[in-house]
Amino acid sequence: MNQNKKLEELFAMYLRWPLYLAAALIVVACITLGIDKIAGLVVLLLTICILAGLFWLYFSSKKNILKAMVGFAKRENSTEGRLTQDLDVPYALSDEKGVWIWKNNAFEALVAADRVERSSVTGMFPDITVETLKNIVTREDFHSSYLEEKYRVYIQREEIDETPIFAIYLMNETELVQLKDEVENEELVVGLLYLDNYEEAMESVEEVRRSLLIALVDRKLNQYFSAFNGIVKKLEKDKYFFVIKRSCLRKMEERKFELLEDIKTINIGNKMNVTASIGIGASGQGYSESNEY
Predict the structure, then answer these.
(1) DSSP characters over 215-257
(2) Which end of the chain has fewer CB atoms within 10 angstroms, the N or the C?
(3) In Å, what is the CA distance from 188 to each residue of 63, 233, 286?
(4) Which of 30, 172, 11, 20 has the alpha carbon at shortest distance from 90?
(5) Is 94 exposed, middle or buried (0-12, 13-18, 19+ CB in 10 A)?
């Protein structure tokens, strides 16, 4: 533990030496200005150029330093490194901007199928931005897509000498999402259909034709729900119970429940068109609860 702490302190000092040198150069420039203004200005100009070069070197080499540190850590623990490298789960490390530092074999194979080079996690998953990474405190997971596949993206934040580094691994959940959608589409939805003006419509037609009007309405309802592989049952003279799949409900919604308009077209001499309304229970935890809706 003590040796690891000493190594961390040495590494921190190595990374910070440009700052120490910058402070020393500024002091020298100030002293020179006090002795001779022209010489001081020359020294100050040189100091600015040197500082610019040092800071450029510091920030441009940070990524390579992180890569070297990761590689060193993997070599130090060869067993863990080998297992991580050969892990079937795509696993990678990135810097604070999402740029890849290291990828295992599974991750390399995944991105190799992409014609466009993805040099960062934000390039692979546009919904995961640099700002998203900054907001991760310890660990977060996201649902996203890549190459038409669905992935659950796990991101864990670590820090090396106060520099954030992110461990990212992917779980392909395409089949799970498809199965979930299939189960949801096969879910049964219950509903009730009411003839709103049943009494008025019956009174507007001759008594001998009333049974024919009802028969036509029943036939229209049976044909409509049969086309959606549904079941309809008459509960009362003006009330019907039906059961359909959720996927069929979506189709009915897309077609704006055309049945309600079709019923109005039934006319055998009745002065008032038959109107209907539909109530659907699709948000309950079970069929009894959905029926209450």
Answers:
(1) HHHHHHHHHHHHHTT-EEEEEETTEEEEEEEHHHHHHHHHTT-
(2) N
(3) 55, 15, 10
(4) 172
(5) buried
E strand map for 83-162: 91-94, 100-103, 139-146, 149-160
* Domains held by the chain: number: 3
Sheet holding 231-236: strands in order across? 231-236, 239-245, 188-195, 276-281
Q: Give pLDDT tens digits for 81-130.
A: 566 777 788 999 998 888 888 888 899 888 887 766 678 898 899 899 99
Number of residues that this document lists for the chain? 293
Residues 290, 41: Cα–Cα separation, whole Å: 83
Residue 129 lies in a domain: yes
Q: What is the spatial distance between Cα 152 and Cα 258, in angstroms, rounded to a whole number?
A: 40
pLDDT in tens, 236-286: 999 999 999 999 999 999 999 999 999 999 988 888 899 999 998 766 565
pTM of model > 0.85: no
The answer to whether the CB of 90 falls within 8 A of the CB of 110 is yes
Residue 136 token pair: 């991760």
Select from 178, 201, 232 the last residue of a domain: 178
Cα 105 from chain centroid (whole Å)? 25
Average pLDDT value for residue range 51-77:
61
For the chain, what is the largest distance between any 2 Cα atoms, rounded to a whole number of angstroms?
A: 121
**In terms of residue numbers, what domain contains 213?**
187-292
Spatial contact of 118 and 111, defined as CB atoms under 8 Å apart: yes
Question: Which residue is associated with the tokens 């308009």?
Answer: 261
C-alpha distances in angstroms, 79 versus 16, 74, 82, 267?
33, 8, 5, 82
- Amino acid residing at 10: L
Total Cβ atoms within 10 A of residue 90: 22
Please give the single-letter amino acid code of residue 104: N
Q: Which of 161, 178, 195 is the last residue of a domain?
A: 178
